[in-house]
TrEMBL record:
InterPro entries for this protein: AB_hydrolase_fold, Esterase-like, Mycobacterial_A85_antigen, TAT_signal
Pfam families tied to this protein: Esterase
PANTHER family named among the record's database cross-references: DIACYLGLYCEROL ACYLTRANSFERASE_MYCOLYLTRANSFERASE AG85A, ENTEROCHELIN ESTERASE-RELATED
Catalytic activity as recorded in UniProt: 2 alpha,alpha'-trehalose 6-mycolate = alpha,alpha'-trehalose 6,6'-bismycolate + alpha,alpha-trehalose; an acyl-CoA + a 1,2-diacyl-sn-glycerol = a triacyl-sn-glycerol + CoA
Biological classification of the source: Bacteria, Bacillati, Actinomycetota, Actinomycetes, Pseudonocardiales
Family (UniProt): Belongs to the mycobacterial A85 antigen family.
This enzyme's EC code(s): 2.3.1.122, 2.3.1.20
Keyword terms of this UniProt record: Acyltransferase, Transferase
Listed name of the protein: Acyl-CoA:diacylglycerol acyltransferase
């Protein structure tokens, strides 16, 4: 059955993270009412349009949240799309907690071209794991969900931690992707490092997917890499920078934390916007 369009509410950044969805397989659900407004002088007072759809993913064998975020006051129809991939142990709504909606509105108000960000629930470093295949969900199902919402196909990828691995791996196979940004990408220089995560069934599976093993297949133009200088994946990100030669790379003070990601997201979004067309 075709999903009914979701109902969009204009919500405040930090109140959006607590939005409730009345789950119904294959149907969209509206975002709950936002919390009271913050003072106008606060960055959190910036609004954005947020819609949360509940979709059934045959590729994953379960229902997933699809969180659509567009700048305040901008019609969503026809916008280019950046798909945001979350980290391990998180979900699509994590980007609401990180302040992405307000940061997106602020970026567009600063002059970059308008675009939408779509986040969806994933797992397993965005790789297949038995009957659960988040990679196939992104390639085979998400395009239709975006189209039903009046959005253009994805041309950008944003990945945080585990999502950075997924974004880079997906970008290797999608030549229609024109912009990729990673924050604290969870990458592995050696098989022992990867094996300790208990994600990959074998060394061959890891080798086939590990972005550091395929740096020459990654885009250089339109690739941005951000990492904190006290991040446990710093050495792996330095190897990514050396091997892929990204257009922009930033090693700045910070750890593998939400505080670091909140701090760099404004710059990341300003990097992505002009490169999505």
């Amino acid at each position: 059955m075709r999903s009914k369009p979701g109902v969009t509410r204009r919500g405040l950044l930090f109140g959006s993270a607590a939005a409730l969805v009345s789950a119904c397989t294959g149907r969209s659900a509206p975002v709950a009412a936002p919390t009271p407004a913050a003072p106008a002088s606060s960055p959190s007072s910036l609004k954005a349009s947020i819609t949360i759809h509940r979709r059934h993913s045959a590729a994953r064998g379960r229902d997933v949240d699809v969180v659509l975020m567009t700048p305040d006051g901008v019609p969503s129809t026809g916008l280019p799309v950046c798909v945001a991939l979350h980290g391990r142990g998180s979900n699509a709504r994590t980007f609401l907690d990180l302040g992405l909606p307000a940061a997106l509105t602020a970026a567009v108000r600063s002059g970059i071209p308008s675009f939408a960000v779509a986040a969806v629930d994933g797992s397993h470093y965005w790789m297949p794991d038995g009957d659960d295949d988040p990679h196939r969900m992104l390639t085979d199902e998400l395009p239709g969900w975006l189209s039903e919402s009046g959005l253009r196909p994805m041309t950008g990828l944003l990945g945080i931690s585990m999502g950075g691995f997924g974004a880079l791996n997906l970008a290797r196979h999608r030549r229609d992707v024109t912009a990729v940004a990673t924050c604290s990408a969870a990458l592995f220089r050696t098989w022992p490092e990867a094996r300790s995560r208990h994600i990959f069934a074998s060394q061959n599976d890891w080798t086939a997917a590990e972005p550091l093993r395929h740096a020459d297949e990654l885009p250089t133009r339109g690739l941005g890499v951000w990492c904190g200088d006290r991040d446990p994946f710093l050495a792996a990100n330095r190897k990514l920078i050396a091997g892929a030669g990204p257009e922009v790379s930033r090693i700045t003070p910070g750890e593998h934390t939400s505080e670091y990601w909140r701090g760099v997201l404004p710059e990341v979004l300003r990097f992505l916007g002009p490169r999505l067309a």
